[in-house]
Amino acid sequence: MITLTINGLEVSVEEGSTILEAAQFLGFPIPTLCHMEGLTPYGACRLCVVEIGEGPRARLVTSCTYPVEEGLKVRTASSRVLRARRMVLELLLASCPQSKTIQDLASAHEIRQQRFRQEHEDCILCGRCVRMCEEQMMAKAIGFRGRGAKRSIGTPFDLKSEVCRQCGGCIYVCPACQLRCTYTEPDKAICGGCANLAPPCEAKDKFDDMMCYMDPCVACEISKDR
Length: 226
Hints:
Elements: E1 2-6, E2 9-13, H1 19-26, E3 49-52, E4 59-62, E5 73-75, H2 79-95, H3 100-108, H4 128-136, E6 143-145, E7 152-154, H5 169-172, H6 218-225
Parallel strand pairs: 1-5
Antiparallel strand pairs: 1-2, 3-4, 3-5, 6-7
């Protein structure tokens, strides 16, 4: 067993676990997009970042690919972590503003304004479909092509794949394919219709290392019941 500290709580987890697996097992929520149970960790979306270490040597790492270490100190919801996640979500919204998954994550992270130019592309290059096709369907019908801004997903040489069984697994796991049914204005980046826009919790303005990580927030749930 490995002993580490997550959000000030000393815990023990199995050796070989990732920070994401340890946090989720203990009930600390960490948002993810490219990660999916049953698929190899990829670390592409950078949404699952956490802060490890202390002082000036503290740094952000992707929790889905970083293994637990003895004595490691992890913060899953520090102000630095939340700023990084909001930036990632704004960039993802610029690439895929119609994804219900990204819309809901943006609302949950209190993103109310889009600062980046809308690209209106669908693929966020999370790699879920590629890994699903290779690891679960054993087909390798699709894969990544190109580099940098020209990177995309498709079949080799854009030819019809002879190994594709048209199972639909790639569509099933794709965050970009989960469209918000109430989305009617393509240039409006954030819907926010499902968000509680006025949380009563004041902790977010008083603490730096530990922001609110409860999901759902107890204070928010109480306020909605009133």
